[in-house]
Amino acid sequence: MHKINKEIIANLMGVLLLFNGGFMLLSSLVSLITHDGVTFELTLSAFLVLFLGVFIMLLSRNHTKQIQKREGYIIVSFGWVLMSLSGMLPYLFTGVIPDVSSAFFETMSGYTTTGSTILNDIESVPKGVLFWRSTTHWIGGMGIIVLAIAILPLLGIGGMQLFSAEAPGPSSDKLHPRITDTAKRLWFLYVGYTLAETILLSAAGMSFFDAINHAMSTLSTGGFSTKNNSVAHWNDTPIIQYIITFFMLIAGTNFVLSYFAFTGKIRKIFRDQEFKFFMTFIGISTLFVALVLYNKVDLTISSFDHPQIFGTLESSFRHAFFQVVAVITTTGFVTADFTAWTPFLTIVFFGLMFMGGSSGSTSGGVKGVRHMLMIKSGFLEFKRALHPNAILQPRHNGSILKEEVVYNIYAFFILYMLSFIFGALVFGALGLDFESAIGVAASSLGNVGPALGNYGPAFSYSELPEFGKWWASFLMLLGRLELFTVLILFTPFFWKKHQ
């Protein structure tokens, strides 16, 4: 008989609050340096969160240091909700987002790296708050839980259960046998890439403040920008958009492959079937969209208020490449309103929202490896129809896939589509038109950001009904934690004492 270890759950919630409060203090420092007038409010938020974290840790200090799978699921799901509840304090205290529904939506959108926003005038927001907003992406991107794994041994706890709940995809690649060292290596790569992109964007002409915010949003595949027009603000500086596209590709690729690259195992990257599938899919999609743009679309109309030279091959390719990568990796930055290009391309981009990046990346969505393995299994069924007695087993990177992995992928995809349909039905019931309802459901569940209709790239989510903001927040959490981690909490057998 296994009782849920409430003390260890409470203790780790305290640890997460300490992380949150620490990063809030960093935002108040940015506020102090930039003289934006909200330093006191940000500092107050930070100290409240830090105090609550210390208080909870003291209350639960006599916990038994043992995490089972059930505790892992509870810590990950509740951890994300707690981070969002405490993370909305800077918005509320500064008055940037005065109501709780909108503040929670914005914060959940940050931590789940969705990038949907209810703010209509981002450029008027104090810099300390903008920095906090980007920080929520950055923390959520690699997963606050993975960060916690790096320090769990200090508490005398093994973190494998947390890691499997945080990243339940079919990727089992470990950089190092010890999970703690894996977390540290992932964070080392993550921080390194963020610094590299910040330096490159600064060199290309962005201010340092804009550069570090966009780097944090890119590496987390988030999409919050410091400008009202997102990356379209730099439509007259193509190099900035190419730099961001490059780092979106890195962030959407399995971080294990980055580790291989830095340790000289280049061949392993190009042998990886998911990497080849992911890059091929992006390449074909980009060329296809670029051809349509070049022949059919006047980019001066759809690029907000920054005109392009109409019909040039470079601008057609750049906008196509940027938007395809932004949607597939679920980053959600925009250089143009892709829903204004053609109805056909709107449908194409809606379809791309269901792709997702690679397993082991910071992207949301279904993930490339699941699509690839479902396609492989489909072709095997054709072969079985012709050769019913043949033993045919799906393979991935040369290894035969276990049956339970294949079942897991099918179950995930069915649950994902059901969640999308049910999600859209709720938005429809709240009064959204068909295009907006399916767009917001797909975008929230896939952690993409921009949707369709009244919630497309040119609009914010401020008009979403109050319950709609809570519902979209739930879908974001569901998508970010890959369905099972959250939905298992709603099953009666999860809470039974006998396991």
Overall description:
This protein is mainly alpha-helical and about 500 residues long. Helix content is about 65%, strand content about 0%. It is built from 22 helices and two strands. It has a two-stranded antiparallel sheet. A hairpin with a 2-residue loop joins strand 1 and strand 2. The longest helix is centred in the first third of the chain and has 29 residues.
Helix and strand arrangement:
Elements: H1 6-34, H2 39-59, H3 69-87, H4 89-94, H5 100-111, H6 127-142, H7 144-151, H8 160-166, H9 179-203, H10 208-219, H11 238-251, H12 255-262, H13 266-271, H14 273-296, H15 299-302, H16 313-328, H17 343-352, H18 368-386, E1 395-396, E2 399-400, H19 403-429, H20 434-445, H21 466-480, H22 484-487
Antiparallel strand pairs: 1-2
Helix pairs in contact: 1-2, 1-3, 1-6, 3-5, 3-8, 5-6, 5-21, 6-7, 6-10, 7-9, 9-10, 9-11, 10-11, 11-16, 14-16, 18-19, 19-20, 19-21, 20-21
Euclidean distance between termini CA atoms: 6 Å
The secondary-structure element order is HHHHHHHHHHHHHHHHHHEEHHHH
Helix/strand-derived category reads mainly alpha
SS field, number of helical segments: 22
